[in-house]
Amino acid sequence: MGSKVAVIGAGAFGGWTAFHLQREGAEVTLIDAWGPGNSRSSSGGESRVIRSIYGPHPEYATLMARAYALWNHWQGAWGRRLYIRTGGIWLFAEDDHYASSSLPLLEGNGIKAERWELEKAVRRFPQINFEDVRSVFFEAGAGYLLARQSCRVVADEFVSMGGRYLQSMVAPVREEGACMESVLLSDGSKLEADHFVFACGPWLGRMFGDAIGRRIRPTRQEVFYFGCPAGDESYSEKHMPVWVDFHRTRGPHGANWDRSASYGIPGNEDRGFKIAEDVLGDDFDPTNGDRIPSQEGIEAARKHLAFRFPGLGNPPLLEARVCQYENSPDSHFVLDRHPRLENVWIAGGGSGHGFKMGPAVGEMMAALVLGKREAMPKFSMQRLLDVAPPEEDEREAGAAGAFGQS
Q1: Number of separate helices (H) and strands (E) present in the chain
Q2: Segment holding 361, helix H or strand E
Q3: pTM for the structure as a whole
Q4: Where are the domains of the chain?
Q5: What is the pLDDT of residues 139-196, one digit of tens each?
Q6: How far apart are alpha carbons 276 and 274 in whole angstroms?
Q7: In this structure, are residues 375 and 366 in contact, taking their beta carbons and an 8 Å threshold?
Q8: What topology is assigned to 4-385 in CATH?
Q9: Rounded to whole angstroms, how far apart are CA atoms 171 and 184?
């Protein structure tokens, strides 16, 4: 087959896939309905945590080692600050297997992460209230990524190498025959290619009603940025790491009734102290869904900030975002060939944790399309097809994919 490739979706997975394919000499067209890093996409927004602790999954340790190397290389080559290294601290109120099982995998991939004594953490970060924390882990290389900016930079660099970018909507795929010849664009024209990569995140189910459908489900997620005390840099990225808190949610009268995971990013280039809860929200329409944050979400975020970071006081809400995860049934990626269309590839199922691996995923997808490697079983289409699609009125519950894989 030839080397003319169409990549649908210019987010973290699609943009980096197009970039790597173009570097390999393919003739690539990158398509997005609203633009790289747009506010409807799962790769939109200002920042994303980059971290390597992933539980007992060697595939992610390997991908993260490569992702760190590629972020460092390309931001240096482009002269753009996209990866801000702050370190990352993990707090566990109960079982810490998710972190402890990662340590030998990370060490084998040259990534530094370690268990800290609680006393060391208290001395190092007095801004944090360590009440109810039983164990602490620290990653030296963790930090955050400038998400929306990264998507635009990658797309611009792709075009500068000779790639073609189109802003257009692609019609749902008719899953028939052995190969796809073209996709239908919103202006009525057809784009022909030898290979097609669909990296359209929460729209994958609509694009492939038979093979995917509701097996990949978008959920509504809220993110908040709070203001820090004037003149106080102790809650900035200069003095605090990104953080992940596996805590016990406090019920009425202080009763502990549920486990949850919250995470956040200090500073964010002066946008504010970011906090979000890593629990699946309601099913969400990424095209037309209401993106106004809920009062309940704001109050929950304030409650957790008041407990874990009491020095912030009662901070003002500076801004809030409603985004979405696109969740696979097991929260792992889908990076594989379509089961029936031999020249069609799927890159999705980010499940709230895929952005940081964009450079490594794009490199992997380019190699798959060009026949230079085989798909990894953990990210196969088959394991997705083995799951019956959920009924329309069902809703998954529990921890979301970003920290729920252990």
Answers
A1: 10, 19
A2: helix 358-369
A3: 0.94
A4: 4-385
A5: 999 999 999 999 999 999 999 999 999 999 999 999 889 999 999 999 999 999 999 9
A6: 7
A7: no
A8: D-Amino Acid Oxidase; Chain A, domain 2 (3.30.9)
A9: 5
